[in-house]
Amino acid sequence: MTTAVSVSHTPRDFEEFTVEPSTEHLLRWAAATEDFSPIHFDAQVAKARGFDHPVVHGPWKAAVLRRLLGTWLGSNVTVHTLTARYLRPDPVGRQLRFGGSLVSATPLPDGATELRCALWVRDESGRVSVDGDCIAMSAPEAGEGLPLDRLRAAVKLGEDAGSFTYRVDVNDVAAFAKAIGASPGADAPATFFAALDPVERRDLDLDGFLHQLPFPMTGGGNAFNEVVYERPIRVGDVITVTTRYTEVYEKKGSRGTLLFRVRVNEMRDSTGTLVATSRCGHVLSYRVDAAEGQK
Amino acid sequence: MIPEHIAAAGVGFELPARVHVTTAAQLVRYAGAAQDFSGIHFDVDYARRRGFDGVIVHGLLKAAFLAELGQDWAGAGAWYRSFGARYTGTDLVGAPIVCRGRIASIDPADRQVGLELWTENADGRTTTTATGIIEMGESA
User: Fold this and answer.
1) Is there a contact between A131 and A85 (Cβ–Cβ < 8 Å)?
2) Any residues with CB less than 8 A from the CB of B54 and at least 6 apart, and which?
3) Is the pTM of this model over 0.90?
4) In whole angstroms, what is the distance from residue A90 CA to residue A47 CA?
5) Residue A207's CATH number
6) Which of A236, A277, B2, B7 sits in a 20 to 30 Å window from A160, CA-based?
7) In terms of residue numbers, what domain contains A171?
């Protein structure tokens, strides 16, 4: 695994980069993008169109800025948006300076940092020919162990994490009954609450980053499911499910470090009356350190 | 009223066991019905990357087998007040799952029957344990 380059989140100017775009640069760009407008390589056409010389492709300048962002921001950063406005034509063969600054760094609840950058390209006289901006996300640094604090923030531990409304149709109950080998009826089977779980349905997905941690995953799945019914769920119900994570903790196990998340779903009908409350414990196991890998 | 066949059986009575042999098609059917599309239940390569020996049965499908064992035995007029399952071992698709249960309590005043339920694999190892409270009669 390569080590992520650490990024400073302090607002600062980026180190400038200077390049003299040649006709070869522009021909390669024209071929790569199939943009063969002759104003970029034919001096006579350029003149006829009012330019003194063939001009550099605007997107080529944007592409150079994009490549430089990787150097300026570091490797654990994802560029979300990059906007470039082309203000002036630049003639081929003249020096261009590329630069910019980190304007702001805003920490997000899930541990990532939103980076906003201002970007520019200037000609030999210092005139701005491209004016741009960029929004990028910096992933949290990989720490020594599992990122429990980040996870607790991401799932909004102890608070309502999300509410979703599901209609219980006759076909839903029939399909569920068939899948478990039960005969369909107006009352849904006792474990039908599982079909109304926003997390299993991926309607609520707050902790997807757990699958991208830099530790090998050695197993995982549901540890337990529990439900208490005020009445059975029935065909025709419109159920609003509110999910709340109640526990996030880790434990050493025989297969590595176990990461537990416990969540509670409250299910109410269209009148707001409680129908059922379910609790689900889920576990993922990771090999966090080298000693565990030798087991 | 506690139905005659339950009252006569009494606490400690073992329900007639039931064996489920799952198929890939059944797991896919369950995945669709429950909207649980985790790849460990249908994608053997993904399941192996996650550390399993192969495609494994949804824990909640085993829970459903156990809940239905109790439901069918208690009869159509009964419904679960509560049910809970813990997964103590994984079952691979196609391996027989033996579902068993016994009566843990009978409460005539509240018309409730407590059940202990569990699944065993072919080696006799318990892979799911569950408890349920079944109530007799009309629900709200």
Assistant:
1) yes
2) B44, B47, B48, B92, B93
3) no
4) 14
5) 3.10.129.10
6) A236
7) 148-294
Read off the DSSP letter of residue A93.
Answer: T
Strand partners of residue B131: B84, B116
Residue A33 placed within a domain = yes
Q: Inform me whether the C-beta atom of residue B46 falls under 8 Å from chain A C-beta atoms.
A: no
Contacts of A28 (CB under 8 A, 6+ apart): none
Q: For A33-51, what is each residue's pLDDT tens digit? A: 988 899 999 999 999 999 9
Distance CA A93, CA A22 (A): 5
Query: A115-124, A142-151, A278-287, B83-92: lowest mean pLDDT where?
Result: A142-151
Chain B residues whose CB is inside 8 A of the A217 CB are 49-51
What domain range is B125 assigned to?
4-22+65-136
Q: Sign (positive/negative) of CA torsion A187, A192, A195, A199?
A: positive
Q: Is the pLDDT of residue A3 over 60?
A: no
* Structure token pair of residue A76: 């654990």
Cα radius of gyration (chain B):
16
Domains: count for chain A: 2
Give a yes or no: residue B60 inside a domain: no
On whether both A166 and A264 belong to a single domain, the answer is: yes
Cα angle value A261/A266/A271 (rounded, 5°):
165
Chain B interface includes A229 (CB < 8 A): yes
The pLDDT of residue A141 is 66
Question: Is residue B113 included in any domain, yes or no?
Answer: yes
Residues A101 and A218 in one domain: no
Instruction: Tell me whether strands A96-107 and B112-120 are parallel, antiparallel or unpaired.
Output: unpaired
Residue B93 falls inside a structural domain: yes
Report yes or no: A228 at the B interface, CB cutoff 8 Å: yes
Residue in chain A lying closest to B90 (CA) = A221
Same domain, A57 and A131: yes
CATH at B122: 3.10.129.10
The answer to whether position A93 is within a domain reads: yes
Q: CB count, 10 Å around CB of A74?
A: 17
B57 part of a folded domain: no
d(CA A240, CA B102): 34
- For the stretch A9-23, pLDDT in tens is 788 999 999 999 999
CB contacts < 8 A, A to B, total 118
Are residues B71 and A230, on separate chains, in Cβ contact within 8 Å?
Answer: no
What is the tally of structural domains in chain B?
1
Residues A116 and A185 in one domain: no
